[in-house]
């Protein structure tokens, strides 16, 4: 765990652009987000959660994640309050929880930005989660970032909070990313991730009997009784390295979303980085990642026929695979860079400061 704040000076003679940023399971001082904000003139202190220490007392993994969020919320909120800083939480739940941390005596609550909010619409504990989000977002000086204006409007309506509690900040490709030259190599279609529309994938594979499908799913997501067709190979609960190796080595990738589920943007971004065309469910959040001449890669929700048609078409046309991969990669590389992300985030922080002076 981090020690005392770094790069935040005493109040006398110090600029006003101070940030406390919380991170979970990383060495925050070495993170690109910290470096990028410092380059833009912010004074940044880092509160991180060191798993090498915490695992001794907070295993298993789920317990560690909860312990990390609670500790980051407490430490980050109180440090931001006492240093006249804006609190930026890389994990948005740490921002939600920080709202309920009492400020030290003599100080007010710090303005807070939580990054990349994703609120599922089903599952266990849905009502308590929504209630927690609603209470936190009704507090002034709180902003959560989302991937699109559509999500901002949907969450505002769902939680019955003002829409200005959300700011649009699309996911970017990772710093240091290596963009592979697009190729038509690979001997399978890759489908993987959390909360995918697996029945639709299996139905689409049935319509493409000559095309091998490689699926990597979470065991808890795989529908009971769903039997894959002979051309579908399923692996459950693999490591991240196995997952992304399978993505890099495919001919094309598929991201079939469920209503209100995980959008699969990281898979789309990594697929494009690997030089692969990525067929995805058309949603307002996903559409900006596709240039107009790649719109045919977007398919309607739960439409196995459309998926089967585009998979068959790409599988049998290497030139179209190359064209789609090149266009998708070029678009994502130009429009969703870390530099753009940092510029947008800096604007969100400055806007919050103007609304809630610190």
Number of distinct helices: 12
**Strand content range:** 15-25%
Please tell me how large the radius of gyration is. Answer: 22 Å
Give the assembly state of these chains.
Answer: single chain
Percentage of helical residues? 25-40%
Order of helices and strands: EHEHHEHEHEHEEHEEHEHEEHHH
Shape: elongated
Q: Can you give a write-up of this model?
A:
- There is one protein chain.
- With 358 residues, the protein is of the alpha/beta class.
- 40% of the residues lie in helices and 15% in strands.
- The protein is built from twelve helices and twelve strands.
- A six-stranded parallel beta sheet has the order 2-1-3-4-5-6, with helices on both faces.
- α1 links the parallel β1 and β2.
- The longest helix is centred in the first third of the chain and has 22 residues.
- The two termini are 26 Å apart.
Question: How do the helices and strands line up, and which of them pair or pack?
Answer:
Elements: E1 18-24, H1 32-39, E2 43-49, H2 51-58, H3 61-82, E3 86-89, H4 92-98, E4 112-114, H5 126-137, E5 142-146, H6 149-159, E6 166-168, E7 189-193, H7 198-206, E8 213-217, E9 232-236, H8 240-248, E10 252-255, H9 265-273, E11 278-281, E12 298-299, H10 304-315, H11 318-335, H12 338-355
Parallel strand pairs: 1-2, 1-3, 3-4, 4-5, 5-6, 7-8, 7-10, 8-9, 10-11, 11-12
